[in-house]
Amino acid sequence: MAANKALLKEIGQDLQKSRFSDAISKAKEVLERDPRNYQAHIFLAFALDGNKQPEDAESIYTAAAAYKPNDPQAWQGLVKLYQKLGPHKLKQYQHAALKLAEIYRDAGDMYKCQDVVDKFIGYAQKNGERQQYAEALSLILPDSPIYPALEGRVPHPAKTYETIVQIVEGDEKREINTLIGERRTRIGARINDVTLEVKREVFSKSRLGHLYRQLIEWSIDDDVRRTYEEKLFQYCYERLLAFPPGEEKAQELNLVLKLANDMVIIKHPYKAAWDVAIDWQDHKDIKEWDFGVLREYITFFPDSDLTRVLSGFLSSSISPFPNIKEEKPVASVGDETGEDESEDDDEGGVQTTYIPTTEEDRMMMMSEGITSANSLLAYRLMGEYYQYLEEYAGNVDLMHKAKKHLEEEQTKTGLPFLFTSDSYSLYLGTALVLHQSPRYHQDAKALFDGVLSHDPTSTPALIGVGLIWEEEQEYDQAIDFLERALKRDATNLRVKTEAAWVKALKGDYAMGRAELEACIPLIIEKSESKELLAQTQYRLGFCIWNLDTSKAARKDRAGAYAYFMGALRSNLNFAPAYTSLGIYYADYAKDKRRARQCFQKAVELSPSEVESAERLARLFADDGDWDRVELIAQRIVDTGRVKPPPGSKRKGISWPFAALGVAELNKQEYHKAVVSFQSALKLAPDDYHCWVGLGESYYNSGRYIAATKAITNAQKLEDNLASHVTGDTWFTKFMLANIRRELGEFDTAIDLYREVILARPAEEGVIISLMQTLVESATDNLEKGFFGKAIQLARENLNYATKVPNCVSFTFNFWKTIADSCSIFSTIQGHIGEFPVETVKTLLGSNEGEEFKLLQDTDGIGTGVLFAKGLFPDDEKVGVDLTKCLHATILAHKRAIHLSAHDIHAQAVAYYNLGWAEHRAHICLPEPMRKSLSRYLKAAIRCFKRAIELEAGNSEFWNSLGVVSSSVNPAVSQHAFCRSLYLNEKAAHVWSNMGTLALVENDFKLANEAFTRAQSTDPDYAHAWVGQGLVALMYGDAREARGLFTHAMDISGASSLISRQLYSVSMFDHILTAPSNLPITSLIHPVLALTQLQALNPQALSYGHLCALFQERTHDNARAISTLEKICATVEAEYEATELQEAAKRFALAKTDLARSYLSSGSYDKAIEAGEVALSLSSDESENELTPEERRKARLSANLTVGLAHCFSGDVSEAVAFFETALRESDGNPDAVCVLAQVLWAAGGEKEREKARELFFGVLESTPDHVQVVLLMGVVALLDQDEDMIEAVVEQLQALRSTDGKVSSVEQGQIGEVMRAIATLREKTTEEDVLSQIQTDILLRPYLPHGWLELAEAGDGEEAAKAAELAVRVARKGVPPKGDLGAEDLAKAYAGTGLAADGQTAIVVAPWAKEGWVALSEAVSG
Predict the structure, then answer these.
(1) 1211 burial level (CB within 10 Å; 0-12, 13-18, 19+)
(2) Positive or negative: CA dihedral 561, 565, 571, 574
(3) pLDDT for the residue 1305
(4) How confident is the model at residue 327 (pLDDT cuts 50, 70, 90)?
(5) pLDDT for the residue 331
(6) Where is the composition biased (Acidic residues) (predicted)?
(7) Which one of 334, 514, 694, 1350 is most buried, counting C-beta atoms within 10 A?
(8) Torsion region of 675: left, alpha or beta (phi above 0 gives left; psi -120 to 50 gives alpha)
(9) Distance CA 758, CA 747 (A)
(10) Cα dihedral angle (697, 703, 705, 706), rounded to 10 degrees?
């Protein structure tokens, strides 16, 4: 023990001299001897602290304090140590400081006790964070163990609590904002959810509520206390909103309600608390609210929205509370003299809030308040007031908004608000029942049922359901609900009269009358509303009206009439009474003026008066006032009464929709009319007239398929129609005919029109429609190429026109159809001989009327030519008939102008039509005359100018003027086209005309732009493509032009002459280039086009000649001969008449081509005769305009033709002479050489054959790649067995067959045949060589059937069958349009299979080819 003391003394000396290491070792030595030595612990800790070992020092001090907790040394050491260690040890510092202060307190040393605490708080404020400082301040709060000792020495607890509150408030606010900022960026996060989550998290560990309460408890300043009471309320309110439903939320709810009610009790004017205290109450009736609280709320918060609503409601007559207008100011105590002392004290005083005194001011004030109010009570009061004012539409919107707000409040507070929800449902249900009844009955009934489910005795709900059943005509159920409501409130006269009325509606008029009569005195006695009295009187009159339905009883003014008038005396604006009076005046008093006034007044007062509306609409419809009909019908539709709810017994009301449809039809609003008629038909599916109206609406809006279905449905109903409607059923046939006409089904339409005319022969509109349809059908057939049918229809129309009633002939459309029918004949000039001149004469009349003198000074057209008599030569008959047809067309249009004098628009159109007729006459003139300004063209220009004067805004008129003036004055033409495009820039034909004008004026760039614009505007307009093709020709791109002409041909109608002309010429030019892959369609389509062209204009001989050339190439020799014979006859007659060299030239060329056709058909003598004529006409000595090239080709063709004709006739020597002449004149043409060589070889003499060989060699030197020459040389070499020659020929053929594009498919087949023949007939050849040759042929041209057929013939069994099958497959792919194989090649492929079915197919494909017949014969016989 002594040793320990000595060591402790040494340790003390070492510490004084700062020898901390020595002190540490010695202190440890002491502790080894005495581990519980307190002083050694103190020294060791001090030494460790001095030796920079604070953690070890802390542990030693702590151990020492445990040994002697009431000794201050260890705690003092810890305090000093913690001051050095910084704020991270602040919590331990607080514990040590508290222990040290308690030791000093127990020792009675208050100075040191306070000093320790003050130093710690100052240290924490200076070095610690805000939260640590707030924790440090807790040492001087009342709940601190040392507070009793320091009370009076430290600040008042209220001040300390306020400081802590400010710190905690700031920290929590920052934490909330920080967490929201971090979490709101998460994927899928929503700001509201994040905010609630963060607040819930922060509030769950917050002690701010406790601090608020302590501050309020300790504060001695009333202002501070009130401020923090408000903060506590707001804090608790936010916690309530943040917590989810559960126990915590319920606790916070009770706390918030207590705080709010406490503030109301002490009358602290904090609006949020008052709003909660008033708004969160849930009572069944409004009268259960505390009037005093409501009155004080108005006083404290005069500018709030709830105050405006409360002030209005409490001052109204429906308020269950004392009227606030009658409130007297409460005088101050001792105020007996009424001196000028302020009465605005806390116990009462003068009213400081404006209180409305009139209904208008009250309504304005309450409406202003409810607009921005978020108060359950405000919505409830406003709903009650709206219901009182019968503002049902406004109440519907308001209650929808209120229920949405109620859901939000229920979610926020967790309160059920059952009574408030029921009141909203009742207000909304009542408004829905009475607003646009019965549109919202289903919604209203659901609301009432919801209330009755937990409150079966709710009188308003029972009444509401009763009214719904009444409207739905479920009278038994309505009576049940109303009587149940009456049991709850037997004095309710409104319910009692409603129950009596339902009985009357059920048909028990006597009971209804008795009960209603009993109610009237009670209503008068109780001074009920005038509206109820008027309603009861009307209903009583209704019962009397239906009890005795005799005419005398209803005319009795002392009966029902008196009660109807009494209802109006009670309420001048009671609409049903006006309806009943209107019926009385209309049906019994026969006073239409008064009836109309009554119906109009009823509709003005109430759109629910459907009977008045229907009768009034019919009156306006009879007057043709469709605007008013539409107005009335739309008003009835808007009420919602026309459509019954699902499951209702009540029938829908269809007439308003039907009336709307008819009105919209008259206004040409067809899409709206469709919707209206569809709505009407949903309510009345068997309404015949609605189906007709729907069909007409669909028709006028261009929906023809739907229109057909509608009219068909209407026709299905015709058998069941009443007799007075049956006479109008013709209109459905007429409409169906119109629809078929628009769909292009003209034959069906014509038949339907004729059926209608049989029943109504004088129906002018149907007659005109039939005539127009006949013309349209003729035009349609013209465009499709059915020229005979078009002519037939035009004749039918003209014949029918002579049989129509006389009144029809005085209409513009009649003469337009006559003119259009005549123009069909002038368009199809091949049938001009069928023009019914006598019929047209009958129609026009023989008198030279005033109408025919129109423009006669210009065009010179009257009835003279048409009525001229006499016989004309056959060659002039076509021209005479055409002239008569053109004159008839023009005269018909002139009469149309005369008949349209009263209508400027129709007259403008008539001049337009006449202008085109004059222009048509101009272009039908002979070509030399068309180049000058003819009288027809002058008349056309005048017509179009007159049309423009009458209607300058019509783009078509300007376009027409541009067309007719293009050859006269290009500047005027350009101006007219520009004006037309200004009026309608989307007119493709005008752009095409502009391009054509530019093309004529050699402005190719402008032409190209115009045609391109036309194509983009309407890609299906053929002439735009034609124009583009002409531009391509001008730039030298024949291939592009041919493609454009082909496309134009494909999309154009058969009447387009220019498309067919240019297409045919371009295709013939292409054929002349001898393309190797020319499809057969390239020959067929031009023939079709030229055939149509001949029918349209048979006088165009050049195109007839071109058609014959195409027919020659398609082996149609008969038609080619017929065509060329006609041309030769016509040209010969022309030459004899005019002796023009051009005619002689055309005759020579035609004879040349005719000779070839004779040769192809086997008429060799005729071929020789025609050929010799052609040779004589094309000789150098002949006088014609043949160019040298034309002369060379004509003579070559004629010499070859005559030579072949002599050859086939057996005169070889004569044939050789012509061939030699052909060779001499054509400078050794290779084709002529081939023909001559073949003839020489066929002659059989060695001399002739040697000459043939010489000819072949000569051609091969000049044209070694001529396929026919090489082939013939191969055959000759094979016959001569000349191996050297065969080798040379095989080499040349190998080179030719491997050349792409230069050898056609036919020539490829011929090369293959020669090669196989050589391989077969040469000496020293084997079957393998033949097979190898066939395989080589297939390898080089696998897409051609020739090699496969040879392989099938060379093989046998299954391999041969497969090869034959492959031949058929490649042949089918090689025919047009995919390839250029001919029908014979396909027939050979089918015949090669050996099957009977394929043999039949071969015959069908090429009946002239023998292979098909042979194959079929072998298959049948074998």
Answers:
(1) middle
(2) positive
(3) 61
(4) very low
(5) 38
(6) 336-348
(7) 694
(8) alpha
(9) 17
(10) -50
Tens digits of residue pLDDT in 254-307: 998 998 999 899 899 998 999 999 999 999 888 899 988 989 998 889 889 989
Contact 315, 357 (CB under 8 A): yes
Q: What is the spatial distance between Cα 232 and Cα 210, in angstroms, rounded to a whole number? A: 9
**What tens digit of pLDDT does each residue of 1008-1031 get?**
999 999 999 999 999 999 999 999
> What's the pLDDT tens digit per position in 556-608?
888 889 999 999 988 888 889 999 999 999 988 888 899 999 999 999 888 88
Strand partners, 345: 348
The pLDDT score that the predictor gives to residue 868 is: 74
pLDDT of residue 1309: 67
Q: Is the dihedral of CA 1040, 1043, 1045, 1047 positive or negative?
A: negative
- Residues 6 or more apart in contact with residue 958 via CB below 8 angstroms: 948, 976, 977, 979, 980, 983
C-alpha closest to that of 396 among 386, 405, 406: 386
Q: How far apart are CA 1290 and CA 1321, in angstroms?
A: 13
Measured distance CA(1053)–CA(352) in Å, rounded = 91
Rounded to whole angstroms, the Cα distance separating 960 from 317 reads 80
Q: How far apart are CA 956 and CA 949, in angstroms?
A: 13
Tokens representing 280?
């969160």
∠ Cα 482 484 490 (to 5°)? 85
- Other C-beta atoms lying within 10 Å of the C-beta of residue 1065: 17
Determine the residue type at 1003.
D
Containing 397, the helix (H) or strand (E) segment is: helix 392-413
In whole angstroms, give the CA distance from residue 1342 to residue 1364: 13
Tell me what pLDDT residue 316 has: 85
The arithmetic mean of pLDDT across residues 41-47, rounded, is: 80
| CA–CA gap between residue 177 and residue 194 (Å, rounded) | 11
How many Å apart are CA 915 and CA 854, to the nearest integer?
Answer: 12
Alpha-carbon distance 295 to 1337, whole Å?
Answer: 116
592, 599 in Cβ contact below 8 A?
no
Gap between the Cα atoms of 740 and 751, Å rounded: 10
449: exposed, middle or buried (Cβ count in 10 Å: 0-12, 13-18, 19+): middle
Given pLDDT bands bounded at 50, 70 and 90, which one contains residue 1322? low
Residues, the chain, total?
1422
Is residue 890 within 8 A of residue 861, CB to CB? The reply is yes
- From CA 302, how far away is CA 1192, in angstroms rounded? 118
* 896-918: average pLDDT: 92
Is the pTM above the cut of 0.85?
no
Residue type, 596: R
Enumerate residues 6+ apart whose C-beta is below 8 A from 588. 551, 554, 555
Query: Using alpha carbons only, how large is the chain's radius of gyration in Å?
Result: 57
Tokens linked to 1378: 């995919």
CA-wise closest residue to 956 among 995, 988, 930: 988
Rounded distance between C-alpha atoms, residue 150 and residue 1354, angstroms:
133
Q: Which among 381, 371, 366 has a CA at the least distance from the CA of 423?
A: 381
- Tens digits of per-residue pLDDT, 350-397? 445 678 878 788 888 888 888 888 899 999 999 988 888 878 888 889
Mean predicted lDDT score pLDDT of the chain: 83
Give the integer Cα–Cα distance in Å for 129 and 174.
14
Cα–Cα distance measured from residue 303 to residue 373, given in angstroms and rounded to the nearest whole number: 12
* CA–CA dist 1164, 1185 (Å, integer): 29
By three-state DSSP, how is residue 119 classified? helix
pLDDT band with cut points at 50, 70 and 90 for residue 1325: low
Confirm if 756 and 734 have CB atoms less than 8 A apart.
yes
